[in-house]
Design a protein that fits this description.
The complex is a heterodimer. By secondary structure, chain A is of the alpha+beta class. Helix content of chain A is about 25%, strand content about 15%. In chain A, strands 2-1-3 form a three-stranded antiparallel sheet. By secondary structure, chain B is mainly alpha-helical. Chain B has ten helices and no strands. In chain B, helix 1 runs antiparallel to helix 2. The longest helix of chain B has 29 residues. Classes of the chains: A alpha+beta, B mainly alpha.
Chain lengths: ~130, ~250
Protein backbone atom coordinates (compact mmCIF):
# COMPACT_ATOMS: atom_id res chain seq x y z
CA UNK A 1 0.00 0.00 0.00
CA UNK A 2 1.27 3.45 -0.83
CA UNK A 3 1.54 5.75 2.19
CA UNK A 4 -0.27 8.52 0.25
CA UNK A 5 -3.42 6.41 0.54
CA UNK A 6 -3.44 6.36 4.32
CA UNK A 7 -6.56 7.63 6.10
CA UNK A 8 -4.29 9.25 8.67
CA UNK A 9 -3.43 12.80 7.58
CA UNK A 10 -0.24 12.64 9.63
CA UNK A 11 0.98 9.67 7.63
CA UNK A 12 0.17 11.42 4.34
CA UNK A 13 2.15 14.45 5.51
CA UNK A 14 5.04 12.45 6.89
CA UNK A 15 6.54 11.71 3.47
CA UNK A 16 7.16 8.08 4.39
CA UNK A 17 9.14 6.31 1.66
CA UNK A 18 7.29 3.65 -0.31
CA UNK A 19 8.04 -0.02 0.39
CA UNK A 20 10.50 -0.25 -2.51
CA UNK A 21 12.58 2.56 -1.07
CA UNK A 22 13.03 1.04 2.38
CA UNK A 23 16.54 0.23 3.40
CA UNK A 24 16.68 -2.96 5.38
CA UNK A 25 18.10 -2.38 8.83
CA UNK A 26 20.75 -4.59 10.28
CA UNK A 27 19.52 -7.15 12.77
CA UNK A 28 19.94 -6.08 16.39
CA UNK A 29 21.24 -2.62 15.53
CA UNK A 30 19.07 -1.22 18.31
CA UNK A 31 19.95 -0.14 21.81
CA UNK A 32 20.40 -2.71 24.53
CA UNK A 33 17.80 -3.32 27.19
CA UNK A 34 17.47 -2.30 30.82
CA UNK A 35 15.41 -4.20 33.36
CA UNK A 36 12.97 -2.01 35.27
CA UNK A 37 12.14 -2.33 38.98
CA UNK A 38 9.22 -0.46 40.43
CA UNK A 39 8.51 0.54 44.05
CA UNK A 40 4.93 1.21 45.07
CA UNK A 41 5.63 3.03 48.32
CA UNK A 42 8.62 3.81 50.50
CA UNK A 43 9.91 0.77 52.32
CA UNK A 44 8.33 -1.67 49.84
CA UNK A 45 10.43 -4.06 47.78
CA UNK A 46 11.27 -2.99 44.26
CA UNK A 47 9.50 -5.41 41.92
CA UNK A 48 10.61 -6.31 38.43
CA UNK A 49 8.03 -5.02 35.93
CA UNK A 50 9.66 -5.40 32.52
CA UNK A 51 12.33 -3.82 30.34
CA UNK A 52 13.02 -0.85 28.05
CA UNK A 53 15.43 -0.22 25.17
CA UNK A 54 17.77 2.66 25.98
CA UNK A 55 21.27 3.89 25.14
CA UNK A 56 22.20 4.57 28.80
CA UNK A 57 20.76 4.44 32.34
CA UNK A 58 19.58 8.06 32.37
CA UNK A 59 17.42 7.59 29.27
CA UNK A 60 16.31 4.18 30.55
CA UNK A 61 14.87 5.92 33.62
CA UNK A 62 13.07 8.46 31.41
CA UNK A 63 11.47 5.65 29.41
CA UNK A 64 10.74 3.46 32.43
CA UNK A 65 8.72 6.27 34.01
CA UNK A 66 6.25 6.43 31.12
CA UNK A 67 6.31 2.71 30.29
CA UNK A 68 5.79 1.35 33.79
CA UNK A 69 4.78 4.08 36.23
CA UNK A 70 2.13 6.11 34.48
CA UNK A 71 -0.77 4.00 35.66
CA UNK A 72 0.26 2.36 38.91
CA UNK A 73 1.35 4.26 42.00
CA UNK A 74 5.11 4.63 42.15
CA UNK A 75 7.63 6.43 44.34
CA UNK A 76 10.90 5.08 42.98
CA UNK A 77 12.33 3.25 39.96
CA UNK A 78 15.50 1.24 39.42
CA UNK A 79 16.98 0.39 36.05
CA UNK A 80 19.70 -2.21 35.58
CA UNK A 81 21.46 -3.12 32.37
CA UNK A 82 20.10 -6.54 31.35
CA UNK A 83 23.63 -7.59 30.45
CA UNK A 84 24.74 -6.92 34.02
CA UNK A 85 22.41 -9.53 35.46
CA UNK A 86 23.88 -12.91 36.25
CA UNK A 87 21.21 -15.58 36.05
CA UNK A 88 21.14 -19.22 37.01
CA UNK A 89 20.64 -21.70 34.24
CA UNK A 90 17.32 -23.46 33.64
CA UNK A 91 19.34 -26.61 33.16
CA UNK A 92 20.14 -26.38 36.86
CA UNK A 93 16.50 -25.89 37.83
CA UNK A 94 16.47 -29.26 39.55
CA UNK A 95 18.67 -27.92 42.32
CA UNK A 96 15.72 -25.91 43.62
CA UNK A 97 13.66 -29.02 44.21
CA UNK A 98 14.04 -30.43 47.76
CA UNK A 99 14.92 -34.11 48.01
CA UNK A 100 13.60 -34.51 51.56
CA UNK A 101 10.82 -32.90 53.62
CA UNK A 102 11.98 -29.38 54.49
CA UNK A 103 8.72 -27.92 55.68
CA UNK A 104 10.49 -27.02 58.95
CA UNK A 105 12.18 -24.28 56.97
CA UNK A 106 8.88 -22.70 56.07
CA UNK A 107 6.94 -20.28 58.21
CA UNK A 108 3.84 -22.47 58.41
CA UNK A 109 5.99 -25.23 59.96
CA UNK A 110 5.98 -23.37 63.26
CA UNK A 111 2.95 -23.97 65.47
CA UNK A 112 3.06 -20.83 67.54
CA UNK A 113 -0.24 -19.03 67.04
CA UNK A 114 -1.48 -20.10 70.47
CA UNK A 115 1.68 -18.62 72.04
CA UNK A 116 1.15 -15.27 70.37
CA UNK A 117 -2.48 -15.27 71.49
CA UNK A 118 -1.48 -16.13 75.06
CA UNK A 119 1.15 -13.36 75.10
CA UNK A 120 -1.33 -10.76 73.86
CA UNK A 121 -3.85 -11.78 76.53
CA UNK A 122 -1.21 -11.48 79.23
CA UNK A 123 -0.25 -8.01 78.00
CA UNK A 124 -3.89 -6.92 78.00
CA UNK A 125 -4.36 -8.27 81.50
CA UNK A 126 -1.20 -6.53 82.79
CA UNK A 127 -2.38 -3.25 81.28
CA UNK A 128 -5.76 -3.61 82.94
CA UNK A 129 -4.19 -4.19 86.32
CA UNK A 130 -2.01 -1.13 85.72
CA UNK B 1 -11.63 40.52 41.31
CA UNK B 2 -11.06 41.47 37.69
CA UNK B 3 -12.90 38.63 35.96
CA UNK B 4 -11.99 39.80 32.45
CA UNK B 5 -8.32 39.54 33.36
CA UNK B 6 -8.79 36.09 34.94
CA UNK B 7 -10.60 34.80 31.85
CA UNK B 8 -7.98 36.20 29.51
CA UNK B 9 -5.22 34.55 31.53
CA UNK B 10 -6.97 31.16 31.69
CA UNK B 11 -7.69 31.14 27.95
CA UNK B 12 -4.12 31.98 27.15
CA UNK B 13 -2.73 29.27 29.43
CA UNK B 14 -5.19 26.65 28.21
CA UNK B 15 -4.88 27.42 24.50
CA UNK B 16 -1.08 27.13 24.59
CA UNK B 17 -1.36 23.69 26.19
CA UNK B 18 -4.14 22.51 23.88
CA UNK B 19 -2.35 23.49 20.68
CA UNK B 20 1.06 22.29 21.91
CA UNK B 21 -0.48 19.02 23.10
CA UNK B 22 -2.28 18.45 19.82
CA UNK B 23 0.81 19.26 17.77
CA UNK B 24 3.00 16.91 19.78
CA UNK B 25 0.38 14.18 19.58
CA UNK B 26 1.03 14.18 15.82
CA UNK B 27 4.15 12.14 16.65
CA UNK B 28 2.07 9.30 18.06
CA UNK B 29 2.94 6.19 16.09
CA UNK B 30 5.68 8.02 14.20
CA UNK B 31 8.17 8.61 17.01
CA UNK B 32 11.81 7.62 16.56
CA UNK B 33 11.57 4.52 18.75
CA UNK B 34 8.74 2.81 20.60
CA UNK B 35 9.63 3.92 24.14
CA UNK B 36 10.17 7.54 23.12
CA UNK B 37 6.98 7.49 21.06
CA UNK B 38 5.04 6.44 24.18
CA UNK B 39 6.75 9.00 26.43
CA UNK B 40 6.25 11.88 23.99
CA UNK B 41 2.63 10.93 23.32
CA UNK B 42 1.95 10.63 27.01
CA UNK B 43 3.27 14.13 27.64
CA UNK B 44 1.17 15.46 24.76
CA UNK B 45 -1.86 13.87 26.40
CA UNK B 46 -0.87 15.50 29.72
CA UNK B 47 -0.80 18.92 28.05
CA UNK B 48 -4.29 18.45 26.60
CA UNK B 49 -5.40 17.42 30.10
CA UNK B 50 -3.93 20.63 31.52
CA UNK B 51 -5.83 22.66 28.93
CA UNK B 52 -9.03 20.86 29.90
CA UNK B 53 -8.45 21.66 33.58
CA UNK B 54 -8.24 25.39 32.78
CA UNK B 55 -11.36 25.17 30.57
CA UNK B 56 -13.20 23.51 33.44
CA UNK B 57 -12.44 26.47 35.70
CA UNK B 58 -13.64 28.82 32.94
CA UNK B 59 -16.84 26.83 32.61
CA UNK B 60 -17.64 26.08 36.25
CA UNK B 61 -16.59 29.33 37.88
CA UNK B 62 -16.70 31.92 35.13
CA UNK B 63 -19.79 30.96 33.10
CA UNK B 64 -17.91 30.20 29.88
CA UNK B 65 -19.18 27.41 27.56
CA UNK B 66 -18.48 23.72 28.24
CA UNK B 67 -14.83 22.60 27.86
CA UNK B 68 -15.47 20.65 24.64
CA UNK B 69 -17.27 23.60 23.09
CA UNK B 70 -14.41 25.92 24.02
CA UNK B 71 -11.83 23.53 22.62
CA UNK B 72 -13.58 22.48 19.42
CA UNK B 73 -16.09 25.15 18.42
CA UNK B 74 -14.13 28.39 18.42
CA UNK B 75 -12.92 30.25 15.35
CA UNK B 76 -9.12 30.45 15.09
CA UNK B 77 -9.22 34.19 15.77
CA UNK B 78 -10.68 33.42 19.21
CA UNK B 79 -7.67 31.33 20.22
CA UNK B 80 -5.11 33.02 22.48
CA UNK B 81 -2.25 30.59 21.84
CA UNK B 82 1.18 31.85 20.79
CA UNK B 83 2.89 31.27 17.44
CA UNK B 84 5.53 28.89 18.83
CA UNK B 85 3.00 26.11 19.46
CA UNK B 86 1.24 26.47 16.10
CA UNK B 87 4.16 25.60 13.88
CA UNK B 88 4.14 22.08 12.40
CA UNK B 89 6.15 19.40 14.17
CA UNK B 90 8.93 19.48 11.55
CA UNK B 91 11.71 16.99 12.26
CA UNK B 92 12.18 15.36 15.64
CA UNK B 93 15.05 17.74 16.47
CA UNK B 94 12.79 20.77 16.02
CA UNK B 95 10.06 19.15 18.11
CA UNK B 96 12.52 18.29 20.88
CA UNK B 97 13.97 21.80 21.00
CA UNK B 98 10.52 23.35 20.97
CA UNK B 99 9.50 20.95 23.76
CA UNK B 100 12.50 22.13 25.81
CA UNK B 101 11.82 25.83 25.20
CA UNK B 102 8.09 25.45 25.81
CA UNK B 103 8.27 23.29 28.91
CA UNK B 104 11.02 25.35 30.51
CA UNK B 105 8.74 28.37 30.16
CA UNK B 106 5.79 26.36 31.42
CA UNK B 107 7.66 25.16 34.52
CA UNK B 108 8.64 28.72 35.42
CA UNK B 109 5.15 30.02 34.78
CA UNK B 110 3.50 27.30 36.86
CA UNK B 111 5.80 28.02 39.75
CA UNK B 112 4.88 31.70 39.59
CA UNK B 113 1.18 30.87 39.23
CA UNK B 114 1.34 28.72 42.35
CA UNK B 115 1.23 32.06 44.18
CA UNK B 116 -1.59 33.52 42.10
CA UNK B 117 -4.18 35.57 43.96
CA UNK B 118 -6.91 33.56 42.18
CA UNK B 119 -7.08 30.50 44.42
CA UNK B 120 -8.53 27.99 41.91
CA UNK B 121 -5.63 28.85 39.60
CA UNK B 122 -2.91 28.67 42.24
CA UNK B 123 -4.23 25.28 43.37
CA UNK B 124 -4.29 23.97 39.81
CA UNK B 125 -0.81 25.33 39.06
CA UNK B 126 0.60 23.43 42.02
CA UNK B 127 -1.09 20.25 40.86
CA UNK B 128 0.07 20.55 37.25
CA UNK B 129 3.54 21.53 38.47
CA UNK B 130 4.04 18.03 39.89
CA UNK B 131 3.45 16.41 36.50
CA UNK B 132 5.51 19.10 34.83
CA UNK B 133 8.67 17.88 36.58
CA UNK B 134 8.84 14.89 34.25
CA UNK B 135 8.27 17.03 31.15
CA UNK B 136 11.16 19.22 32.20
CA UNK B 137 13.40 16.24 32.98
CA UNK B 138 12.58 14.61 29.64
CA UNK B 139 13.40 17.76 27.66
CA UNK B 140 16.61 18.55 29.50
CA UNK B 141 17.94 14.99 29.42
CA UNK B 142 17.45 14.60 25.67
CA UNK B 143 18.87 18.00 24.80
CA UNK B 144 21.94 17.52 26.95
CA UNK B 145 22.59 13.99 25.75
CA UNK B 146 22.02 14.56 22.04
CA UNK B 147 23.84 17.89 22.09
CA UNK B 148 26.89 16.13 23.48
CA UNK B 149 26.75 13.09 21.19
CA UNK B 150 27.49 13.03 17.46
CA UNK B 151 28.08 15.95 15.09
CA UNK B 152 24.93 15.03 13.17
CA UNK B 153 22.80 15.24 16.32
CA UNK B 154 24.40 18.54 17.24
CA UNK B 155 23.80 20.05 13.79
CA UNK B 156 20.18 18.94 13.77
CA UNK B 157 19.54 20.35 17.24
CA UNK B 158 21.28 23.62 16.41
CA UNK B 159 19.13 24.01 13.29
CA UNK B 160 16.05 23.29 15.39
CA UNK B 161 17.14 25.88 17.92
CA UNK B 162 17.81 28.50 15.24
CA UNK B 163 14.27 27.98 14.01
CA UNK B 164 12.44 27.67 17.33
CA UNK B 165 14.24 30.21 19.52
CA UNK B 166 13.04 33.41 17.76
CA UNK B 167 9.48 32.02 17.84
CA UNK B 168 9.73 31.19 21.54
CA UNK B 169 9.54 34.85 22.57
CA UNK B 170 5.90 34.73 21.50
CA UNK B 171 5.34 32.79 24.75
CA UNK B 172 5.84 36.04 26.62
CA UNK B 173 3.74 38.35 24.46
CA UNK B 174 1.73 40.38 26.99
CA UNK B 175 -1.99 39.69 26.74
CA UNK B 176 -4.90 42.05 27.02
CA UNK B 177 -5.30 43.14 30.68
CA UNK B 178 -1.66 42.22 31.33
CA UNK B 179 -1.05 45.13 33.70
CA UNK B 180 -4.24 44.39 35.59
CA UNK B 181 -3.14 40.77 36.01
CA UNK B 182 0.11 41.93 37.57
CA UNK B 183 -1.54 44.63 39.72
CA UNK B 184 -4.07 42.19 41.17
CA UNK B 185 -1.44 39.52 41.82
CA UNK B 186 -2.86 37.04 39.30
CA UNK B 187 0.63 36.51 37.91
CA UNK B 188 4.03 38.20 37.73
CA UNK B 189 4.85 40.23 34.61
CA UNK B 190 5.71 38.61 31.29
CA UNK B 191 9.01 40.51 31.29
CA UNK B 192 9.94 38.93 34.60
CA UNK B 193 8.95 35.44 33.40
CA UNK B 194 10.93 35.95 30.21
CA UNK B 195 14.04 36.97 32.15
CA UNK B 196 13.83 33.85 34.34
CA UNK B 197 13.28 31.71 31.25
CA UNK B 198 16.26 33.23 29.40
CA UNK B 199 18.51 32.39 32.33
CA UNK B 200 17.40 28.77 32.42
CA UNK B 201 17.50 28.34 28.65
CA UNK B 202 21.00 29.80 28.45
CA UNK B 203 22.23 27.30 31.03
CA UNK B 204 20.56 24.38 29.24
CA UNK B 205 21.85 25.41 25.82
CA UNK B 206 25.36 25.79 27.22
CA UNK B 207 25.19 22.36 28.90
CA UNK B 208 24.02 20.93 25.57
CA UNK B 209 26.97 22.34 23.63
CA UNK B 210 24.69 24.51 21.48
CA UNK B 211 24.58 28.23 20.77
CA UNK B 212 21.71 30.65 21.11
CA UNK B 213 21.10 32.56 17.88
CA UNK B 214 21.18 36.37 17.98
CA UNK B 215 17.75 37.90 18.34
CA UNK B 216 17.14 41.26 16.75
CA UNK B 217 13.45 41.60 17.38
CA UNK B 218 11.65 39.64 20.10
CA UNK B 219 8.25 40.63 18.73
CA UNK B 220 8.51 38.96 15.30
CA UNK B 221 6.17 36.16 16.34
CA UNK B 222 3.79 38.30 18.41
CA UNK B 223 0.07 38.39 17.62
CA UNK B 224 -1.24 35.08 18.93
CA UNK B 225 -2.42 36.53 22.25
CA UNK B 226 -4.72 38.83 20.25
CA UNK B 227 -6.03 36.15 17.87
CA UNK B 228 -3.64 36.89 15.00
CA UNK B 229 -2.20 33.53 14.07
CA UNK B 230 0.10 31.97 11.52
CA UNK B 231 -1.30 30.19 8.46
CA UNK B 232 -0.50 26.90 10.26
CA UNK B 233 -3.28 27.17 12.85
CA UNK B 234 -6.50 27.02 10.76
CA UNK B 235 -5.69 23.68 9.03
CA UNK B 236 -4.55 22.23 12.35
CA UNK B 237 -7.83 23.23 14.00
CA UNK B 238 -9.76 21.82 11.06
CA UNK B 239 -8.07 18.47 11.56
CA UNK B 240 -8.47 18.59 15.35
CA UNK B 241 -12.19 19.35 15.19
CA UNK B 242 -12.97 17.03 12.27
CA UNK B 243 -14.88 14.52 14.38
CA UNK B 244 -16.51 17.03 16.72
CA UNK B 245 -18.13 19.05 13.93
CA UNK B 246 -19.86 15.97 12.47
CA UNK B 247 -22.23 16.17 15.43
CA UNK B 248 -21.48 18.89 18.01
CA UNK B 249 -24.41 17.72 20.19
CA UNK B 250 -23.25 14.12 20.43
CA UNK B 251 -22.67 12.72 23.91
CA UNK B 252 -19.48 10.75 24.33
Amino acid sequence: MKMDDSHDPRIRRADVPSAEEYTVKETLDQWGTFEVFHQKSRGDHHSHVGCVHAPNPEIALLFAKEQYARRMKCVNLWVVRTADITASSYEDAEMFEPATDKSYREAFGYKNKHLIKKYKEEQAQAKKEG
Amino acid sequence: MNFDAIKELLYRLADDDLIMGHRNSEWTGLGPILEEDIAFSSMAQDAVGHAQAYYIILHQLLQEPAPDTIAFARHHSEFRSCHLVEHPIGGYAFSLVRHALYDTAKSIRLEALSNSSFRPLSNLAQKIGREQRYHQLHAETWLRQLGNSTQEAKTRLQNGLNEAYPLAFSLFEPTLYHDAMVDTGLQISEAELEAQWMEKVQALVLASGLQLPEIEDKTVAYGGRYGKHTAFLPPMLEEMTEVFVIDPQATW
